[in-house]
Amino acid sequence: MEIAVSTLITLIALFHLYIMWFEMFAWETRGPKIFRQFPRELFPKTKALAANQGLYNGFLAAGLIWTFFITDDHWRTNVALFFLGCVAVAGIYGALTASKKILFVQGIPALITIALILISGLQQ
Question: What distance in Å separates the CA atoms of residue 98 and residue 82, rounded to the nearest whole number?
């Protein structure tokens, strides 16, 4: 179970690092290709807003990566649950306000990982 949790945390962290890169550094170049429904002229005007969102995604990734360096099991679990909870809330909110797809790529993986952590903790 520990390998599955570590793998999921790694994948979720990598995904958020990708989002950080995209929103901070590729918003004007890749953004119009990904968000085709938005007018092209919107991207330069929203570059600072996207970069700010990207920074927050970087913080989520950093928190998840931090869990691999915490040696105390209780602290590692609590820190992982906190950051995964933040990711899950962001995924749910994004699904409600922006796109249902966000729930599947962000919210559900975090919720599954939280469930696995809680289940494995109950078995100990």
Answer: 23
Q: What would the pLDDT profile of 41-54 be if each residue is shown by its tens digit?
A: 999 999 999 999 99
Nearest C-alpha neighbor of 54 from the set 76, 28, 36, 77: 28
Between CA 102 and CA 86 the distance in angstroms is: 14
Separation between Cα atoms, residue 63 and residue 57, nearest integer Å: 10
pTM higher than 0.85: yes
What is the secondary structure of 13-28 as a DSSP string? HHHHHHHHHHHHHSHH
- The residue whose two tokens read 């990598």 is 14
Tokens of 101: 């797809």
State whether residue 35 is helix, strand or coil.
coil
* Closest to 18 (Cα-Cα) out of 34, 2, 3, 42: 34
DSSP label at residue 76: H
Query: How far is the CA of 57 from the CAs of 2, 17, 24, 48, 63, in angstroms?
Result: 24, 7, 10, 14, 10
